[in-house]
Amino acid sequence: MRNPQPTNAEPGNERAPADENVPSGGNSDSPRPLAAHLAELRTRIVVSLVSTAIATAAAWWQYPLLFRLVKRPLEAAAMRLPVEPVLQAWAPLEPFMFVLKLGIVSGLVLASPVLLFETWMFLRLGLTAREKRVLAPIFALGLLFFIAGAAAAYFWVAPTALYYLASFAAKSGILYNLRLSEYTSFLINLLLAFGIAFELPLVMLGLSASGILAPTAFMRPIRYVIAGAFVIGALLTPPDVVTQIIMAVMLIALYFLGILFARIGYRASLWGGGKKETGG
Question: How far apart are CA 24 and CA 21, in angstroms?
Fold first, then answer.
């Protein structure tokens, strides 16, 4: 009598269903080897460096266009001034360093879509399916919000600030000429500051969706937030009441938008799924 052949239906041979909480790079029994992660990281770094080098070379090639873009906020402010401010170089190497810095910064900006894509492609290997669904839209929205903040600083805040500062200098009998390197640093820092400030709603979304803070926790200090917005508006803008009020209103609007995002994220239970609301 023949022995019965083993079948796949025997206990222990069933294939376990896929787990959403297991990183996509592999299952819990066979984790992705460290060597594979290092090889992946090396590939992403090489692609990022090559793309940045190409973008920087293109930026140096288009230097006249970039220089016009750098001067645009100053020229927009000068349209309302009796005397146009002049950009000056105060050191022998300053023009060369300016062109070098402008090319590198512009190259990073131009290559940023590739850099962000390569960063995401590497990070997603260690994420679960649920984390990917949560972080992918936040990642994309973060880029859009940063661009919106930088655009607001470039087209509105910088020209307005330069106009009032130059007007104050003219009323004080001071010749308002700007050093090239300091003007460039002022513009870059302003764009970065507003770009980061516009990330506030997404930070609040992440804190609420992950269960660290509930939406009600953001409502409690609302009076201090409003007062702080006017203080920050006074510090970041020239001594002009209208500009300070507009800045404060923008910051308050961002905070309330963040509360809305926090409520959406908390109710959807994107991270914590069914946790009780806590006050943080």
Answer: 9
pLDDT, one tens digit per residue, over 137-147 is: 778 888 888 89
CA distance 256 to 113: 29
From residue 205, give the alpha-carbon distance in Å to each of 31, 94, 102, 211. 31, 43, 34, 10
Strands 178-179 and 87-88 come out as parallel
Q: Is 216 exposed, middle or buried (0-12, 13-18, 19+ CB in 10 A)?
A: middle
Confidence of residue 26 (pLDDT cuts 50, 70, 90): very low
**Cβ atoms within 10 Å of 101's Cβ, excluding its own:** 14
For the chain, report the end-to-end CA distance as a whole number of angstroms.
70
Q: Look at residue 21 in the predicted model and tell me its pLDDT.
A: 54
Distance CA 142, CA 150 (A): 12
Residue (of 177, 167, 151, 149) closest to 77 by Cα position: 167
Residue 266, exposed/middle/buried by CB under 10 A (0-12, 13-18, 19+)? Answer: buried
- Dihedral sign for Cα atoms in the order 126, 131, 133, 139: negative
159-191 confidence digits (pLDDT tens): 888 888 888 888 888 888 888 888 988 888 888
Where does residue 259 rank: exposed (0-12), middle (13-18), buried (19+ CB within 10 A)? buried
Single out the residue of 196, 102, 106 nearest to residue 143, CA to CA: 196
